[in-house]
Amino acid sequence: MPEYVLAFILAIGVSLFLTPWVILLASKTGAMDKPDARKVHKKPIARIGGVGIYTAFMVSMLTVMFFADLTSEVFFEIVGLIVSGTIMMAVGLIDDYKNLPAKIKLLGQIIAAAVLVLAFDVRIDFITDPFGDYIYLEWFAIPATIFWLVGITNTVNLIDGLDGLAAGISSIAAITILLVALEDNILLVAVLTAALAGAAIGFLFYNFNPASIFMGDSGALFLGFMLAGISIIGAVKCAATIALIVPILALGLPILDTTFAIVRRWRGGVPIFKPDKGHLHHRLLGLGFTQRQAVLLMYVISALLGLSAVALTEVSSQIAIFILLIVIAAILYGAKKIGIFTMRNA
Q1: Where are the alpha helices (DSSP H) in the chain?
Q2: Rounded to whole angstroms, how far apart are CA atoms 220 and 296?
Q3: What spatial distance separates the first Cα and last Cα of the chain, rounded to whole Å?
Q4: Which of 124, 122, 109 is nearest to 78 (CA)?
Q5: What pLDDT digit, counting tens, does each position of 113-158 carry?
Q6: What angle do the packed helices 72-98 and 50-67 form, to 10 degrees?
Q7: Residue 142 CA from chain centroid, whole number
Q8: Within 13 A of 326's CA, how many CA atoms are on the CB side?
Q9: Highest mean pLDDT among 193-197, 287-291, 302-306
C-alpha cells in the first residue's frame, strides 16, 4: 500500500473515531461557541474540533514515519512541520478558550512560522519568473516566508464562518496539492497532504450542516499553517513558482475573501481585525441561499479552482500566470456584483 494511501486512511479513521470524544471534552471544559449577532448558529456548539484534526494528522504521520525509510532531510522537514504546527495549534486552542486579543494571536502565529523558518530552515529562497529564470530572495527570504505562512493561515481562519466551509475548502486544497505532488513524484508532499485531507474529511462528517462541532481557531490555524508549510516544501522540491501558485488557486476563495475584507474595512475606516458580516458566505446567505447551498456552491468553486491549478502544471509558466490573472479578474467582477466591497455592520 502506498504511504500516502496509508496516511489518508489512518487520518480519516482517527478523526472519525476521536471527534465525538472531543465534543464531550468541549462540553466538560466550557469550550462552547455561543451564538451572537454575527454568527449564524442558534445554540452553543463545541469549538475545539482542531484537537481531533491535529491528533488525527499526528497519529497518521508518526505511524508513516515509523514504518517508512526516511532520509535525514525528509525526517527533519517532517519534524519541523510537526513542531511548528503544534505551536500554531496551541495558539488557536488557547484562543478557543480565552479569546486572545488579535495582536497577541498574531504574535503567536509569527512565532510558530519563525520556528519553521529559522529552526528548521524551511523557506522560500527563490522563485522563478515567467521565463524560467531564478529570482533569489536573499535577505528577503525569511520575512517573505513568514508572511506567506501567516497569511495563508489566516485566510483559512477567516473563511471559517459556516458549517463545514473551512474543513471542506481545506480538504479540496489538500487534495489539489496531493494530485500535483503525485504528478511531480514528490512523495513527501503527497503523504503530508493525504494525512491532512483525511483528518479534515473525517472531521467534516461531524462539522457539515447541521454541525455538532466547530473546528475553532485550533483547527483553522493548524490547517492553514500546514497547507502553507507543505506548499513551501513542494516549491523547494520542484524548484518552480507553480508549486506556490497551486495553493493560491486552490485556496483562491479564502485568499480573495480575506483580501476583500481588508479592502472593505480600510474603506469603511474600521480596524482590519474587526469582524463584520461582509464575507462571501454572509453575502450568499443574504441572497437567499441556505447554509448548505452556500457551502456547496463554495465547494464547487473551490474544486473548479483546484482543477484549474492541476491543469496549470501542464502548461508553461507564462500561460499559467495569464490564466491565473483571468481567474482573479472573473472573481473580482463577481465579488463587485454582489457588493462584497461594501461595509456591513457586525
Answers
A1: 3-29, 50-67, 72-98, 102-114, 141-159, 165-183, 187-207, 216-238, 242-250, 252-268, 280-286, 291-312, 317-337
A2: 19
A3: 50
A4: 122
A5: 999 999 999 998 877 665 566 677 788 999 999 999 999 999 898 8
A6: 170
A7: 21
A8: 10
A9: 193-197
pLDDT at 277: 66
Return d(Cα 214, Cα 207) in angstroms, integer. 6
Q: Which three cell numbers stand for residue 180?
A: 500535483
Alpha-carbon torsion angle 226, 262, 93, 145, nearest 10: 30
Whole-number Å distance between alpha carbons of 238 and 186: 8
- Rounded to an integer, what distance in angstroms lies between the CA atom of residue 97 and that of residue 91? 10
Q: Interior CA angle at 82 toward 76 and 88, to 5°?
A: 135
Q: Are 305 and 327 in contact (CB under 8 A)?
A: yes
> Nearest Cα to 88, choosing from 274, 214, 228?
228
Take residue 42 and report the three cell numbers written for it.
Answer: 442558534
Distance CA 119, CA 188 (A): 20
Among residues 122, 238, 246, the alpha carbon closest in space to that of 184 is found at 238
> Which residues, listed in sequence order, are joined to residue 128 by a DSSP beta bridge?
134
Q: CA-CA distance, 5 to 59, in Å (whole number)? A: 14
The single-letter DSSP state of residue 119 is I
- Cell 441556505, located at residue: 290
Checking 326-330 for CB contacts under 8 A at 24+ apart, the result is: 327/249, 327/252, 328/252, 328/256
Are 215 and 53 a contacting pair, CB within 8 Å?
A: yes
Q: Is the peptide bond before 210 cis (omega within 30 degrees of 0)?
A: yes
Return all residues near 3 (Cβ < 8 A) that are at least 6 apart.
Answer: 64, 68, 187, 190, 191
Higher pLDDT, 268 or 112: 112
